Amino acid sequence: MLFKVRMDVRLPADMPKATADELKRTERELAQALQHSGKWRHLWRIVGQYANISIFDVDSASELHDLLTSLPLFPYMTIEVEALCRHPSSIHADER
Amino acid sequence: MLFKVRMDVRLPADMPKATADELKRTERELAQALQHSGKWRHLWRIVGQYANISIFDVDSASELHDLLTSLPLFPYMTIEVEALCRHPSSIHADER
Amino acid sequence: MLFKVRMDVRLPADMPKATADELKRTERELAQALQHSGKWRHLWRIVGQYANISIFDVDSASELHDLLTSLPLFPYMTIEVEALCRHPSSIHADER
Amino acid sequence: MLFKVRMDVRLPADMPKATADELKRTERELAQALQHSGKWRHLWRIVGQYANISIFDVDSASELHDLLTSLPLFPYMTIEVEALCRHPSSIHADER
Amino acid sequence: MLFKVRMDVRLPADMPKATADELKRTERELAQALQHSGKWRHLWRIVGQYANISIFDVDSASELHDLLTSLPLFPYMTIEVEALCRHPSSIHADER
Amino acid sequence: MLFKVRMDVRLPADMPKATADELKRTERELAQALQHSGKWRHLWRIVGQYANISIFDVDSASELHDLLTSLPLFPYMTIEVEALCRHPSSIHADER
Amino acid sequence: MLFKVRMDVRLPADMPKATADELKRTERELAQALQHSGKWRHLWRIVGQYANISIFDVDSASELHDLLTSLPLFPYMTIEVEALCRHPSSIHADER
Amino acid sequence: MLFKVRMDVRLPADMPKATADELKRTERELAQALQHSGKWRHLWRIVGQYANISIFDVDSASELHDLLTSLPLFPYMTIEVEALCRHPSSIHADER
Amino acid sequence: MLFKVRMDVRLPADMPKATADELKRTERELAQALQHSGKWRHLWRIVGQYANISIFDVDSASELHDLLTSLPLFPYMTIEVEALCRHPSSIHADER
Amino acid sequence: MLFKVRMDVRLPADMPKATADELKRTERELAQALQHSGKWRHLWRIVGQYANISIFDVDSASELHDLLTSLPLFPYMTIEVEALCRHPSSIHADER
């Protein structure tokens, strides 16, 4: 099941650089692991923003919630979720 | 170059069904041709809405504009465009 | 899987009363059938509005889209969808 | 009488973890007691958000206000309230 | 139980004057009857707008919905409802 | 002359409790004195919010401004003001 | 007493030109009479918009409402009203 | 050339009172000098808000920017600017 | 003096094609004449929209208003105007 | 390829003046270098705001993202990006 997710990140201005770097490093590791697993199907940067557009492919809405809240940067994110489904004009038989 | 596009369609309440059907048929044909060409890389329906989320892969912003305005349903659409680029945590070397 | 859906209905001012009545009658029949099936789990009126708050329990986002777009009043509705999941403080073990 | 309530929680970035944990623990206890009493009829997590959608069944608007302001996390919440009533297409004779 | 209601009226530009006048006449009659009954406790015009701010005193949210939807101008109104309760600094012991 | 006023209060998270209590105490005293004088005609709590809906009856807009800015909580409030007048369907001859 | 008023005009696309011209002519006559009387103290066009910013000097909010609703273009206007008062840094002793 | 300007002031909660008083004093001095010069033609308080509505009469947009950014409170203001011009129904031959 | 202008065009769905074509033809002629004169300094299409971003270089706000309202498509446009001035980091000595 | 960018700058109230000055100095140097290179084609101040409107001429959306995120003030900016293309009524054959 596909969900489009937009994540806007805003770190506190007074967060020490080492803390921010460590957060970003662990975030990247988890994001890449989830991409390799196929759960985080697409991950794009929005031009000019500390934000991304992502497509998740999960078994349920609950699984998506668990993935998102497990992200190290979750406490600093504003997140919007939209459920997607196959478009009747898509050339693919599934939701791809 | 990737762009995320959201299209919301609103046909006039008094459009004859035959006109609407013909518009949708030619829209679908063009949408599928553009998918096969690789320009319209993804096309998903937003659940519960007469709207889609699309990813276009074009050579320039001008090309995107020409594609969008050539759609038969263009006069009945509200369109939002966001430029995307590769995310530093993506596992792909290109924008894919 | 649970989704919260808000539907706002706006019929054209010049729709003949017989047409509107027939639309509402078939809408009600389908809404009640879907409630009996367990798919449309809750249906409440928002006070002072021609609008409802509903909870759907479906197998996938696609199924929800198919249900919503099959509603006779769908062309006259503005629809908002939010995916829900179990709250950690819920006293129920499932999403109920 | 039914009210739909949406609660968004935002804890200060500099709140000590022990304070936050204690707040969440007492919040959960009260939330569960109110669910057992039937006052807090439904409690769902919104996917990807530190927020919930709830249905309260109270004797009056005043009772709802007293319940909401008694929540330990109330000072850190943004709350929206909508009054609900029975939908004419509901299969239930009461507001359920 | 008190509810604040804001009603904005927008009649179609092509409604015949006789129809509009008859709607307004029956609206006024019902509004005044409800004021005399104590259900529609306050009714004020918002300066410069075809809109009012009202305070209703009803036994339940359902009763408010029935009152509002019985208004002849209801199909032409945008309505916002807010539940009120006694303020702790009020000099009145009840919600008055 | 009547004005509807909505006041939303937001105290800084780090304000000492004694300071907040003293502010609220003097706010309540002034609010009650203004109610007894007839200037602050109605004061209701909005359900689920640290906010109120008030009706002021003043001689001029200037007087309203002076009253509002004299409130001890004024620096912590977001305030919206709407001018009201007698509604043609009101059963009262004055603005009451 | 001063009020700032913003009026946005939107005439129906199918209004006959003669009707529009007559409306504008009578609107202008009344606007000029009210300016000469001192009630409509300032009247400016917002650049690029069919809209104006006005300052009214009236005895009461009711008088303002009566003036605004007497304008021939009132049914085609969206109107916003803000109450003004003397600024403490003004070099004038009154509201001027 | 006339511009309507709205300025909303928000001082940090932890600014020492002496600093705030000094800022306001110098702000008032400059505001009054600019009023005497004719550049700051009108200055009104918005009722219930720490905000003003002003009309500036300047030779160019650049001059307006220089005036606004020279205000001592500028760093604490949210500012909206709208260009005005003579209204065709104005009784004045110039922009007055 | 520079102004940024955004124009969104929305032609009525039932406007005859010949009328629309004639409007667009005269609009283009005037737009090009104004570009040649230097008044309409830049004119760009916003990708995916029937809208443009323009930079005007005029002697006064009044002149801008006269230019905009003389456009044949003006009655079908939503227009936003922002006054610009030289940026202190610009490499040009004037507003260019 | 042209993009319109709006940047709003908001420095923390407690940033030392020397830090702010150094940030602005390096920002200006980079902004001027990018203007000289032709990448940052236009840079205007919005009147009354600590904000600019810019036109960038880049080879790709990725290049724009890299330029924007390399700005020293980037962490303190809110940025909006809109893709532009040649307008059919432009007198220039390219996007200029």
Give a verbal description of the structure.
- Ten copies of one chain form a homodecamer.
- Chain A is elongated.
- Chain A has a single domain (2-83), classed as Dimeric alpha+beta barrel (Alpha-Beta Plaits), CATH 3.30.70.
- In chain A, 31% of the residues lie in helices and 33% in strands.
- Chain A has 96 residues and is α+β, with helices and mostly antiparallel strands.
- The first copy, chain A, has a four-stranded antiparallel beta sheet.
- The first copy, chain A, contains two helices and four strands; from the N terminus they run βαββαβ.
- Chain A has helices at residues 17-37, 61-69, and strands at residues 2-9, 40-46, 51-57, 77-86.
- The model of chain A has no long low-confidence stretch (mean pLDDT 96).
